[in-house]
Protein: Hydroxyacylglutathione hydrolase
Organism: Raphidocelis subcapitata
Amino acid sequence: MSPPAISVPDAETAGPEEEDAPPKPPVPAREAAALLALRDANPSSELPEIWTAGSDPSQWPGLKTAADGAVVELVLDGRALAAVPAAVGDLSRLEKLWLSNNGIRTIDAGISKLQRLESLWLGSNLLRTASLPPSLSALTGLKQLWLPSNHLVELPEAVCDLPALEWLDVSENKLTTLPAAIGRRAPSLTRLDAHSNALAAVPPELGRLSALRHLSLHFNELEALPGEIGGCTSLVWMTVHANRLREVPPEMGRLTNLSRLSLHMLEITTLPPELGGMSQMEAFAAFKCRLTSLPGAALAGWRVCRRLALYENQIAEVPEEIGEMEGLEELWLYDNRLTSLPKAIGRLGRLQRLWLDRNLLETLPAEIGGCGKLQELYVSENRLKTLPTELTALTGLRRLYLAGNPDLVIPPQVAAMPCLSGGREYGGGGGGGPGGGGPGGGGGGPRGAAAPAGGGVSALAAAVEAFKLEPARREEQGGA
């Protein structure tokens, strides 16, 4: 996503206040010359058309000036730029430089003169590792460095020597490693986006980033995480999905502030019980893995967890400790090997949606009637023979999907429930996931009949949306 361009109203469309506004002070001559140098260094860009000779630079699109005329913001997103010349360093008051979505191949070392620069966005360009000058480390006030969607194969050490840096985005490049120095010399870093690269490992020094709150490492080639990652005790969001991890380090249980964790699409077969130390966990995803069991101690520690996605695994049993998750609202367990549910499921008084499709369930516990806020229950394609009459206590139940249970005999009391009137959900209710009506259900009924709930969206996309694992960039950087 690119930063928004700053627009200047036309005289024809300007409101009364804008027409009566006093004229802007002129841009200082040295800075005007720097802007012209930027224009002339990019003859094939849009700048020659929008920054015309003889016009007032203070009125040029993409600029914001201070009360004395000095340029403080330069936003030239998507203007077909190819180079950033040394003269840009003469914009000595510049605080924000956004040049995303261009064709920039080189950044002159003169940029290091921008001592007031706080935000530098260079995403979606043609930058390579050698394009970033070592003098970049002179930007001692830089807080945001945004380099996604370039051609970086290595992160230069200069990037690690930015003492004020809070947000570093190097996602969607070709990085195979992160420098160890990033953990030693970037003490202010609160957000690190390194997803969608070719990372095979992350340095243990990353665990020194005690101020880090957001860490995205998904879609890489990671085979392991260092135990030192448990030192990032300020972490709130962490995405590690779609890697090659075979185990989760137990030291991650020290991340007591973590509220969102995505571990889906990994090769893990179990989860360490120490994860129960994540007492602020609100949304946990480990679907499409190889899990065969769940640690009761971990579930018992997640009392405030609202969403738990564990579908498409090989889980044979849900531990009784599930009843300790008193804040749980949505539970995805479809496409596993469950033969029964624990009685403790009835203690989930806030549960609203429960997906159990395509398991091996023969019955549901009578205690499920204790889930007083349950609105949607998906148990299609199991081995159900009967249903507990306690389901009638679920007066808020709007959807009950039962298709694909050929031996099921529904008690009259249950058959009379409004959610089964007309037999629509029973005869045509599909399950969650592909071909079903759960998160991302592709259709109700056995592989095709229309389901009331959101068909046509993939299970993966729906779950990621539900977990909101990617916070909005614009909100993160202050609404600009």
